[in-house]
Write a structure and sequence with these properties.
0% strand
Length: 159
């Protein structure tokens, strides 16, 4: 086994969830489309808004580490959808598919032995791939808890 391969595989396992937080694919489809735009009492976001935010942030980091033409989005406006529900079910399905496609691209970066985990990424002199992957993992874990809480408040998740 190549040096560092075990560490790269551990990072992929954490990125996918299931170790310290539930993997999104284990529960994302249990929220019916007609409920993804509901903001439970006292909460400022819907299930859709939180998931959109996870997807956008992950995409932003993917572009940050890989694109020659990266331009930072405006915070916080660009990171939130501006509406509590997508326009239609096809848009919702596209958002979910985009999340998993981008996560797979991040996994490819992690597993690429030609990319050093501790060197700066394309658009930074200070931020390494390791830092950016940990940021995606932490961010996704944090908001995954919120998604599960929203499901619970909507009467969908009961564990």
């Amino acid at each position: 086994m190549e040096p560092g391969r075990r560490y790269r595989e551990q990072l992929v396992n954490h990125l996918e969830g299931g170790l310290a937080f539930m993997p999104i694919e284990s529960f994302i489809d249990s929220t019916p489309f007609h409920k993804i735009g509901i903001k439970p009492a006292g909460l400022p976001y819907s299930f859709y808004e939180i998931f959109y935010h996870i997807v956008f942030a992950q995409k932003d980091i993917l572009l940050y580490i890989s694109s020659q033409h990266y331009k930072a989005p405006n915070w916080p406006e660009d990171y939130w959808p501006g509406k509590s529900v997508p326009d239609n079910e096809d848009d919702w399905e596209d958002l979910k598919a985009g999340y998993f496609e981008d996560r797979n691209l991040l996994k490819d970066h992690i597993l690429d032995k030609n990319i050093q985990l501790d060197l700066p990424v394309k658009n930074s002199e200070d931020h390494s791939l390791l830092r950016e992957i940990l940021l995606v993992i932490e961010h996704t874990a944090y908001h995954t808890g919120q998604l599960l809480m929203i499901q619970r408040l909507l009467g969908i998740y009961d564990n």
